[in-house]
Design brief:
Protein name: Putative filamin-A-interacting protein 1 (FILIP)
Largest sheet: none
Shape: flat
Number of helices: 4
Keywords: Coiled coil
Organism: Fasciola gigantica (Giant liver fluke)
InterPro entries: CFAP_domain-containing, DUF4200
Radius of gyration: 80 Å
Pfam families: DUF4200
Distance between the termini: 186 Å
Order of helices and strands: HHHH
Structural class: mainly alpha
Helix content: over 70%
């Protein structure tokens, strides 16, 4: 519609440049011409408006029909979805039932296979027992022949009982032999362990003896060293005693000289060296004083 109006406007309302012959027309003539053009345009617009309204009515009717069809389609779609959903539910139930039946069928097949396998095992055991019975038949025939030849046994169970008794005695003898062997092995092991322990003790005692000998040698060395030290100490003590005796003798001689003068106290005991030395000291002090007094006089003479 907009394109149509634009086209009408371009065709009828745009002012064209007047040609040379139009320039001679008067202004009133031009106005009349324009007025005619406007009336034609108005009539054309009214006609176009009527046509547009008719088209709009048609479009509205078409829209209503389309909406009605759309509602019908929606209802059909809802019915179809409902049908499809019900169909899916039926299908799911059918599939579930089919799955259960298949599981049950598999279970039954499994049970049949297990029973078949058990039956085969039982048949194998039966065949094996039949073969064992056939293989033992010769022993039964042998026992029957033995009974015919023997006077001690009248029935097969008696013979079997006798055989079991002999077998038990044999097993008892074997058990005793194993016990004796075990005891022998135990005694032999005890003997080896005793020898090992004795050897270890002997080795330990030998090591202890060597250690004690080494310790004795060290003690003897220390004793010799101490004896040498004691000998040196004894010699030093003897020398000291000798010196003390000499000093004591000299002290007694000097004491006797000092005692020639009675002014030096009482007589001291022979073993009282301290008192004697005190008296000797007093005597020497007096002697020094006398010497100091007499020395100037001697020098003058």
């Amino acid at each position: 519609m907009e394109d149509y109006l634009k086209q009408i406007f371009d065709e009828r309302l745009l002012i064209k440049v007047p040609d040379a012959e139009d320039r001679t027309l008067t202004t009133s003539t031009k106005l009349l011409e324009k007025d005619k053009q406007l009336r034609r345009i108005h009539e054309d617009l009214l006609q176009r408006k009527d046509e547009f309204q008719v088209k709009m009515q048609y479009f509205e009717q078409r829209r209503q029909e389309l909406e009605k069809k759309e509602c019908q389609l929606k209802e059909s779609l809802i019915r179809f979805e409902k049908f499809f959903k019900e169909n899916d539910e039926k299908k799911a139930r059918a599939l579930k039932k089919l799955s259960q039946e298949r599981s049950l069928q598999k279970q039954r097949v499994k049970e049949i296979e297990n029973l078949t396998a058990e039956m085969r095992i039982l048949e194998q055991k039966r065949d094996k027992l039949e073969r064992v019975v056939k293989s033992y038949a010769k022993y039964r025939d042998f026992l029957v022949a033995v009974l015919k030849e023997s006077e001690d046994f009248s029935e097969i169970p008696e013979l079997i009982h006798r055989y079991d008794a002999l077998t038990a005695n044999l097993e008892d003898l074997k058990a005793r032999e194993r016990l004796n062997n075990q005891q022998y092995e135990q005694l032999d092991g005890d003997l080896r362990r005793y020898r090992e322990v004795t050897y270890d003790e002997k080795l330990t005692l030998t090591n202890e003896l060597v250690g004690m000998r080494n310790k004795l040698e060290r003690y003897q060395t220390k004793i010799r060293q101490k004896e040498q030290t004691w000998e040196h100490a004894r010699e030093a003590a003897v020398n000291r005693i000798s010196e003390l005796c000499t000093i004591k003798a000299a002290t007694q001689n000097m004491y006797k000289i000092a005692r020639t003068y009675e002014k030096y106290g009482e007589e001291a005991h022979a073993d009282d060296v301290t008192s004697q030395l005190k008296i000797i000291g007093d005597f020497i002090v007096d002697l020094v004083e006398v010497t100091k007094t007499l020395s100037p006089r001697i020098k003058e003479k």
